[in-house]
Amino acid sequence: MQNSKLLFKIKKLFNSELLTTGDPSRSFRVNALAPSSRGGRTRKLRYWNGFTLIEVLVAATIVALLSTIGLSGYQAITRSGRDALRKSDLEQIRSALEIYKADNGNYPITSNCAASLSSSYINPYPGDPKSPYKYCYNRPTTLTYYICAHLENGGGSDPYISECGGANQCGGNCNYKVANP
Questions:
Q1: pLDDT digits (tens, 9 = 90+) for 11-20
Q2: Concatenated DSSP letters for 40-93?
Q3: Which residue, of 10, 17, 32, 123, is most buried by count of CB atoms within 10 Å of its CB?
């Protein structure tokens, strides 16, 4: 019974010294005096509105985790997009080579890992969307060719070394090849 009277007095004291900001959920108390259980002396209580260190660390961890997931997803999508563009470019070069062969009876010669095609067959000659990589054209005979490229999501091996003119001709592992039909 005595404890309930004491709690009632404490609640009454705190409610009388409550500083509000207009929103009761965001109220705070400053220098409120609360009775002590030791002989009626009072002690100062300070209440600050804010976040604890644990709450801040948990929030920062969640934000870091979500941003990592989003960034890795974004990077995977951009790699896939560049790979799709590479495949499309190689098909464009293949079509130009077939038109050249239909006009001249053989495929064009290799010039610095690229086909020697005039602008009437392909304009402009496509280049790899990422700078260290390039498309490599190799013509072993007058009636055969290989066009090789490095796909970022295409694996780490270099299965087309001999067909593409040697190691690192694509600026990386040549792991995708288009040949004459």
A1: 665 554 444 4
A2: T-EEEE----S--HHHHHHHHHHHHHHHHHHHHHHHHHHHHHHHHHHHHHHHHH
A3: 32
Distance of CA 176 to the CA centre of its chain: 24
Judge whether 121 and 94 are in contact, CB under 8 Å. no
In a domain, residue 159? The reply is yes
Considering only CA atoms, give the Rg of the chain.
36
**Same domain (yes/no): 94, 142:** yes
pTM tops 0.85: no
Choose among 174, 104, 118: nearest CA to 146: 174
The domain tally of the chain equals 2
Do residues 157 and 104 both lie within one domain?
yes
**pLDDT at residue 59 tops 70:** yes
Collect all residues with Cβ–Cβ distance below 8 Å to 15 and sequence separation of at least 6.
none
Q: What is the pLDDT of residues 69-104, one digit of tens each?
A: 999 999 999 999 999 999 999 999 999 999 999 999
Scored b (16 or more CB within 10 A) or e, 20-48 reads eeeeeeeeebeebeeeeeeeeeeeeeeee
